[in-house]
Amino acid sequence: MTEINKDPLLSVRNLGVVYETSQGPVHAVTDVSFDVQENEVFGIAGESGCGKSTLIKALLRLLPDNGVATADRCDYRGSALMKMEGEAFRKEILWQEISMVPQSAMASFNPVYRVGDQVVESIQTHRKASRAEALERASELFDVVGLEPGLLKSYPHEFSGGMRQRAMIAMALSLDPGLIIMDEPTTGLDVLVQERILRRIREIRAELKSSIILITHDIAVIAEMSDRIAIMYGGEIMEQASTIELFENPHHPYTLGLKNAFPSITTMGTELISIPGSPPTLIGPVQSCPFAPRCPFDDAACHAANPAATEIAAGHVVRCVNYENSAQFRSLAKEKSTWLS
Amino acid sequence: MSSSRTSQRFRKLRLALREHYRIINSNKLSQFGFWVIILFTLVAIFAPWIAPHDPWEMTYDSNGNFASLRPPSWEFPMGTTHLGYDLFSQLILATRTTLLIGVVSGFISIVIGANVGLIAGYYGGKIDEVLMRITDILYGMPFLPFIIVLIALFGRQLEFIILAIVLIIWRTSARVIRAQAMSIKQRQYIQMAKARGASDLRIIYRHILPNVLPLLLLYAAFNIAWSIITEASASFLGFGDGETVSWGGMLYELWLSGKTRVAWWWFASPSVCIILLVTSLVFVSRAYEEVANPRLRKR
Amino acid sequence: MVVLELDRLSCHFELTPGFVDRVIKRKPPSYIKAVERLSIAIGEKEILGIAGESGCGKSTTCSMVSGLLDPTEGDIRFRGKSILGLRGDAIKDYRRSVQMIFQDPYESLNPRFRTVDIVAEGPRALELWDANEIEQRSLAMLDAVGLPSGKYAERFPHELSGGERQRVGIASALVMEPEVIIADEPLSMLDVSIRAGILDLLREMQAERGFSSLYVSHDLSILGNVADRLLIMYLGQAMEIGPAEEVIRNPKHPYTRALIGAVPIPDPRSRRAIPNIRGDISKPIDPPPGCRFAPRCPYADASCSNTFIEMETGAGTLHQAACHRLAEIDNAGS
């Protein structure tokens, strides 16, 4: 893989996560490699069970006890995250350098403390700051995310879903992290609220020069927000490219299928086509392309081995043995009959 | 068609049995408990054929001597009482009484508790208020004075002992099942059943009941254990049925004889039986508790 | 031919004030006006989409139509006859005719029932046919929704994927042979790649069986795809109604404009205009009689909060919006 930028902010190579379960080892993430550049929004799209949440948990070392992560490289600004001592990682990296906006902001605030106190606490855990300084910072942050600083005195239950999400983003910004991971930041919110939060995220990125990893199942949100996108399926990155490239020159059959299935308000009347079948369980060793059982273009090679990731153009990586036939795939994929047979 | 339906029922039953088998085999203790319960049940069923003597028969040893206060030997495996009764025979026949009281009162109390809990939890409002106040009153009732009054009124008969036990122990199961019913009532599949036109009774017994079943079995086992302990305490205090032998009753006889310090065997066997059966029931119910409450399950 | 008609339907919930307010200050109780004078008519084989944000009253409306909630005012008519106050067999019959498909396929199936029993539950509860026929019809219904009964009938919900579960949910509604289906966000919990399949199934069944649908969703992209007509609601009031494509391509009401402008587009080259509204959504507690969007509307004037505009909503009516400043807004826009 050629490096676009000499020093990416986060560089991950061949990351894998295996969960030991009573049914055998589950390969939740397999052979994942990507770079996040400075001041970039890197989108990870995929459906439930595709491994996107596990990937993030592995990066933040939040895996449950039965999960083991391995990687050839996992560097943040040159320091190897996986090799750091747990204590050092928690003190120097977590929240300071890499912070996270969890999926359910509802559950992420303790209901018995004021929101402001919780933001102050998260500042004071990592920085030497007086309460007044921390409060000052907290109200600045609230201003950034578009909340009245007066709301710092409120309790979480007095906030609407959108407000809580914004407060959570404020908290994630509190220590000027280099990288913010947002896990489905607008899922479950109404469109107008979502629109406002997305706009705020764009502004923050422009102002604060932080990088963002945006995880979502919503193709439309990711299309609007990201510079680069990785499409995940069955624990692997199926295709990754710059957003424009991915939408205009998709190669992987799964990407094509996802595009067919996703409705757009601008193209009403175009028939939506689903991908028959359901995602793999990932139990046992990976011996074939995880998408092969649902793929309309599969052949013997797809089932024989897990295809390697191939860089077909600068920054455009596809994991499909038949990527050379993608022009043909693209025209066939528009037909519903292709998918149903 | 009807034959296919019976075969379907049969398959359903087999599935259910396999599920119970899996639960019981899930850990060593519940396995142990299960076999102990089976053993006691067999003993209870075949008691009259197993017992070598009548429980109130004055026994003589092979030399023709009156066998009074004999420690355990080949002839009298559990020893004898001061009146020469064979403790082994008493123990075996007492198993029958004890299990009968335990199972009957455990069963009746769980039926009452489940119904009260389901109805209170499902309907809520005034019905819930009334039923729960009744259980509150029962919670305030001290057990021994209650059973003394009851037995003083009706006499020392098995039926009234069971009645007294049932009246006291259904309250806990009612409370727990009410809480569970209230939470299941909120689930969307209950809404769906309602939207499809199911009546209240149908929702309670067809939709909610199967979902509280693991909890119900757990409390059934608890209730049986409690009934056995309760019966033993009542008998020990002299409120048992004088016509039948029970483990508590055996201990009461020992107390009356004044030989507590001498006859350790007389004291040991019924106590061990009570402890063994009650802990076995608790072990099995623990296995069910893991099903009812997945948070206890190990990852 | 109108199948289902809601006539100035309102639903208010009383908020009991605190003891002090009630007894000492003698405050009158407040009301949440969840749905206010809503009129809709659904024609034969029509799919009417209802869109709006949380709290717009779409779920309350569904509950009233399906008979789970009584309206405060107004009337619901099924084939011309009011269903309010129906008793006995008449209400049973109506319940059978109007069936719901639920949002969450993980929550809406009883975990202790096999799929065939889930499907058969409705007919069994209402004793629609004899036991044998119920079983036959349920198995046939599973086949019809794409779950071969030989393979799926004996399975329990936890052995099914999300899409398969939702198919069971649909089968359990359709086996009742309903004339109206209320689908409450039936796709929102499903993965993108299988949504289209469920949508196709609903459409196919509709064509085959000829029921009408009330399709409730917050996702305008899907509604634009599936609905014939679209109703936009805000805080319990109807804002705009019309043919779905018309409403989405050419929204009239300032709220609809904002709502459609906020929908992200899966095309990195497209740029949306920033929705032109202010403030946050509130709750409809003792609202003023007029347009509830007025406090957030950039075009609102003093009269907006006082005038309630009722729209003509009969089946096949034209595109219209409940806004009395449409002309001025169009001028301002051009």
Task: Give the helix/strand layout.
The complex is a heterotrimer of chains A (341), B (299) and C (334).
Chain A (H helix, E strand, L loop, with lengths): L9 E12 L2 E13 L4 E5 L6 H8 L7 E4 L2 E4 L2 E2 L5 H8 L4 E4 L3 H4 L6 H12 L4 H14 L16 H13 L5 E5 L7 H18 L2 E6 L2 H7 L2 E6 L2 E7 H6 L4 H9 L38 H5 L5 E4 L2 E3 L7 H8 L2 H5 L1
Parallel strand pairs in A: 3-9, 3-10, 7-8, 8-9
Antiparallel strand pairs in A: 1-2, 1-4, 1-5, 5-6, 10-11, 11-13, 12-13
Helix pairs in contact in A: 4-5, 5-6, 10-12
Chain B lengths: L1 H23 L3 H18 L1 H4 L36 H37 L1 H15 L3 H12 L3 H28 L2 H8 L4 H37 L10 H11 L6 H29 L7
Helix pairs in contact in B: 2-4, 2-11, 4-5, 4-7, 4-9, 5-7, 6-7, 7-9, 8-9, 9-10, 9-11, 10-11
Chain C lengths: L1 E14 L3 H6 L5 E14 L3 E5 L6 H8 L7 E6 L2 E2 L5 H10 E4 L13 H12 L4 H14 L4 H4 L9 H13 L5 E5 L7 H18 L2 E6 L2 H7 L2 E6 L2 E7 H6 L4 H8 L58 E2 L4 H8 L1
Parallel strand pairs in C: 3-8, 3-9, 6-7, 7-8
Antiparallel strand pairs in C: 1-2, 1-4, 4-5, 9-10, 10-11
Structure report:
The complex is a heterotrimer of chains A (341), B (299) and C (334). Chain A is of the alpha/beta class and 341 residues long. Chain A contains 13 helices and 13 strands. Chain A has helices spanning 52-59, 86-93, 105-108, 115-126, 131-144, 161-173, 191-208, 219-225, 243-248, 253-261, 300-304, 326-333, 336-340, and strands at residues 10-21, 24-36, 41-45, 67-70, 73-76, 79-80, 98-101, 179-183, 211-216, 228-233, 236-242, 310-313, 316-318. In chain A, strands 7-8-9-3-10-11-13-12 form an 8-stranded mixed beta sheet, sandwiched between helices. In chain A, strands 1, 2, 4, 5 and 6 form a 5-stranded antiparallel beta sheet that branches. With 299 residues, chain B is an all-alpha fold. In chain B, α4 (87-123) packs parallel to α7 (158-185). The longest helix of chain B has 37 residues, at 87-123. Chain B is elongated and about 80 Å long. Chain C has 334 residues and is an alpha/beta fold. Chain C has one domain: Rossmann fold. Chain C is built from 12 helices and 11 strands. Chain C has a 7-stranded mixed beta sheet with strand order 6-7-8-3-9-10-11, sandwiched between helices. In chain C, α5 packs across α7 and α7 (162-174) runs parallel beside α8. Chain A binds chain C through residues 47-48, 160, 162-163, 190-195, 198-199, 217-221, 223-224, 243-244, 247, 257-266, 268-269, 272-276, 278-279, and chain C through 53-54, 161-164, 191-200, 218-222, 224-225, 244-245, 248-249, 258-270, 272, 274-275, 277, 280-281.
